[in-house]
Amino acid sequence: MADRTLLKNGIVLSLDKKIGNFMKADVLIEGSQIAAVGPNLEAEGAEVIDASKMIVMPGFIDTHRHVWEGILRNIGTDVPLEGDASYLAFILNTLAPVYRPEDAYVGDLVGLYGAIDAGITTILDWSHIQATREHADAVIRALQESGLRAVFAYGYPWWKYPDENQDNWIRDVAKQYFSSKDQLLTFGLASPGPEFIPFEFAESQWKLAREVGAHITVHVGVGTAGKLGKLGEMGRAGLLKDDTTYIHCTTLSDDEIQMIVDTGGTFSLASPVEMMMGHGMPPTQRFLDRGLRPSLSVDVETNVPNDMFTQMRSVISLQHAILFDKKLAGEDNVPALLTTRDLLEFATIEGARANGLEDVTGSLTPGKQADVIMLRIDKPNIFPINDPIGAVVWGMDTSNVDSVFVAGKALKRNGLLLNVDLNRLEKMAYESRDYVVSKSGFKLPAI
Ligand SMILES: [Zn+2]
To answer: What pLDDT shows up at residue 160?
Structure first.
């Protein structure tokens, strides 16, 4: 029989409506899977972990992050998306072009271990750092070493278009790393998006993604470029399908948003980034009004923190602010306020759906993979627990993340990351950061 682990007597938020949530219950893990969820489970021979001071729930899911930027954390917090002194100018056109494969590797490791530390168990790595074939090998090695569940979304390097090698490299990576479905990594194509490249190229990239069986993930409706109606052109050409996740969508027209909904696409919101960097107003309500619930994404650690607590609070705060403002202005028929339960679903099961993994992860459902986190409730920032869902969404932070399991394997226990030498990683991060910054001529912000 496979290894068995029993998480005993926790507050269990399965986030599976058929199973429900419990103030006191157990979660049984067998091998890589969740075997059972409920009170007083019998589990002979299992290793028993006391969860009586824990909330046990599915791991958080991030549906879009440029993980290679891990070594550039907080480098652009006062920098907007567009303009002469901007994210596009500094990060993508100055710093990214000097990245060696080893810098992409270290950047990814930093981001991935940060994600695990924050209770994230699945991440979509939107990896538009693929300047050479070796960059893909380096990033995939980091993803494999981390132990996370991930979508490796191969991304065309922004500053190297056009590059005739890329299509062959994409086919090659698909064959070398993604022939098997029975692994933690799945394949995606991080398409440059029709706003930033000629229509024919966007079309050819989407066709290539479908040829190699890659999930498509694309930035659309981004700032000024998003108003050009380019997604509508793609839609009218019959290219929008249910295998695609649309990121931001901030400046899309209502017709374009409706096209996404009608064709079964999914939506990745990066609300803190969108608000602070000038992408446009997060379109949460425009999607909710049409029946499509968002997933959440960190996007860039150059600007925002790496955790889903920040994400959840940002999304619910903005929606409430806008709706209460309407109520105070005397408007009738104001839409329903989001609840904390909605936000917890956006950060878990909706993330699984957007990453094409809803049958695999995103809830504590027997038969799904055991991607589980335990959040401490005996810390001074959170006791006494009166409403566990409210506590996770509004009261907790990453200091409450005690344990993280992916496919039944512990990646963090007792508040400490396993399987990584953090002193070594820190040293690698500084060395790589120093190389990238000095080679590019970028000046770190003055203090
Ligand atoms: Zn992005």
So the answer is: 85
Cα–Cα distance for residue pair 410/388, rounded to 1 Å: 23
387 alpha carbon, distance to own chain's centre: 26
Residue-wise pLDDT tens digits, 396-414: 999 999 999 999 999 999 9
Residues 6+ apart with CB under 8 A from 25: 9, 10, 12, 37, 38, 39, 41
Work out the pLDDT band at 181, boundaries 50, 70, 90.
Answer: confident
pLDDT at site 363: 98
Q: Which residues pair with 123 in a beta bridge?
A: 62, 150
Q: How far is the CA of 249 from the centre of ligand 1 (A)?
A: 11
CA distances from 322 to 75, 327, 343 (A): 30, 9, 17
The alpha carbon of 87 and the centre of ligand 1 are apart by a number of angstroms equal to 11
Q: 58 near 371, Cβ under 8 Å?
A: yes
- Ligand 1 centroid–CA 128 distance in Å is 9
Q: How far is the CA of 307 from the centre of ligand 1 (A)?
A: 16
**264 CB-near residues (< 8 Å, 6+ apart):** 241, 242
Kindly give, in sequence order, each residue whose CB lies less than 8 Å from that of residue 73, ignoring residues fewer than 6 positions away. 110, 301, 302
pTM: 0.97
Query: What's the pLDDT tens digit per position in 269-322?
Result: 999 999 999 999 999 999 999 999 999 999 999 999 999 999 999 999 999 999
Cα of 220 from ligand 1 centre, angstroms: 10
